[in-house]
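[job 4471] stage=fold_predict status=RUNNING
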Amino acid sequence: MAGYQQKNDLQVADALAAFLEEQALPGTGVDPAAFWQGFSDLVTETVQENRDLLAKREDLQAQIDAWHLEQRGQPHDHEAYCAFLREIGYLVEEGEDFEIDTANVDPEIASVPGPQLVVPITNARYALNAANARWGSLYDGFYGTDAMGSAPPKGGYDQGRGARVVARARVFLDEAFPITRTSHADAKRYYVHKGALLVDDQFLAQPEKFVGYTGHPKAPDTVMLRNNGLHVELVFDRTHAIGSRDQAGLADVRMESAVSAIMDCEDSVACVDAEDKVVAYANWLGLMKGDLQETFEKGGKPVTRALNPDRELIAPDGTKLKLKGCALMLVRNVGHLMTNPAILDKDGNEIFEGVMDALVTTLIAMHDLQREGGNSLTGSVYVVKPKMHGPDEVAFADRIFTRVEQILGLPQYTVKLGIMDEERRTSVNLKECIRAAKSRVAFINTGFLDRTGDEIHTSMEAGPFSRKDFIKRKAWIGAYENQNVDIGLECGLSGKAQIGKGMWAMPDMMAAMLEQKIEHPKSGANCAWVPSPTAATLHSLHYHKVDVFAVQEKLRAGGRRAYVDTVLDIPLATYQKWTDAQKTREVENNAQGILGYVVRWVDQGVGCSKVPDMNDVGLMEDRATCRISAQHIANWLHHGVVDAQQVMGVMRKMAAVVDEQNAGDPLYQPMAPGFDGIAFQAACDLVFKGRVQPSGYTEPVLHARRLELKAAL
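[job 4471] inference complete, writing structure tokens
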């Protein structure tokens, strides 16, 4: 077949075959012939089980739809509903208590709570920024955002604002690293004497929080401190614009920020063919080999970005100390649903993309395993697996990675698994999902948006859902978030794995984030997602204020707070007397988010965008946010809250709004006034055909429309 090479029983697109044989395989010690044989066998061995698992999803959904239709017009019987779900095998019996036995886990996963970035792997610059976000300037975070309550000024440096930044940073230092009989605000000199840090001749109240320095002990260039496992670096430079005005010469406070980062091959990218997959895999290869670079123009000059080196210090006892310069990197694979034309099986069918990702991303990570001081210092590969429905699908993923390890000659359980708790069948069976991969689990994470999208799709026939803001206020969401932590602790994840929380989706609203996102570490989560390196730096403040492991210990002693019955409370609208204006506003808000995201996804291949909402607040949109918005409109259409003519009118109105918002983008193709472009059609498909999409996912529509556009170019 033109454009493909025969590799055993596989037909592999030329670009992908060349990448694997010329770039990915060399240096791993894996024989190419054995690799292709193993790849071919893996596809053959897994294809039918994958299909059967997807068929089970559809069968369960059909039974749930039928049950709701039979109950139509009657009050919802929660007990009967739960009994029915158990009867059909949607709810499985919870087994005896156990604890995970995952081994060789890096400290960034097991023992250092902190922020976590998620970034599209197809954008090398963003990927490098995320990896380098291990360290960030607190001064920049305060000065350049609204974190102190007001937006940064335009124009040159504002000395008044700078002074407030310094004062705010000193307050943090006093809270995290108090000094006996003085304050960081009054400090004039920091120095090291006989292995101890002194500040104006006074000791730290907790001397053990001093971990190292650079430069001369009598006048260090930097001083490294540690609190709750996270490092803080004091940078001294009296020639610096800030340090020259500071009585101690303190030029910056650098925070250990994103201790881990997910390089995403899934929700935030638009990978529909071999060309796209090679871009993703090549960037992952550069990260795992440590040689990824990206040159771009900034301020009219070319800038080349690369991975930061590790930091070398002098420990208090005079020995050398090294701290990692980059975040620990995980890679998020595609789930079990999608196929990709990059590789065809012996029957000419596209293979499942998740199987492709499992083998290829693990192969690439072998380059890291074979170098000293790389990403993982314990010899592990971290794969986040999204959109799994229930224990059977987690067990399937576990077996896939066992076969991947066999093919590549790796010890079993080299690959550690991150389970996204974002589908309802996983939420209500979470303990058994963890059990199904108890020797691999290194991560569980709630995902409110995907979880809500699945909630709407699963209960589509139950009735109209509340408006989106009200869905968040229902009891089920609190139970979902609490149960995730409760079960994670019950299964022994504390000190062995991450219990994570979802994204702060408003990257320009850092003051609100500082106020609200502290609830994540307070909930017992030892990591939570942030949308930018700056957000990671600011969110790190929360982990200095909250001792997450102490919180986890208290929660574990108290037992479970949430149970499946509450998680299964469907967030339907109990009061449906919305005004026409309220209904229009809700549909407009959903439509704007869908259109603003989809137009760039389909036309430009951009998988994650900052899209202004109705109030011009920039929101991070990816396929999860698109899924909930599309399913919400589909639900209201299905139950007659709005009709097709009204929705189409809104879609056209909001397309014109999105066009205006993107007027400054030279690559942007307007949707209005013709409304006949492929991107607009894709957005309409998500809404008007949303009810029949598998699990309400957006991928099938987006992939098909993006491939249609690429074929027309």
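[job 4471] summary: The CA atoms of residues 236 and 250 lie 4 Å apart.
[job 4471] exit 0
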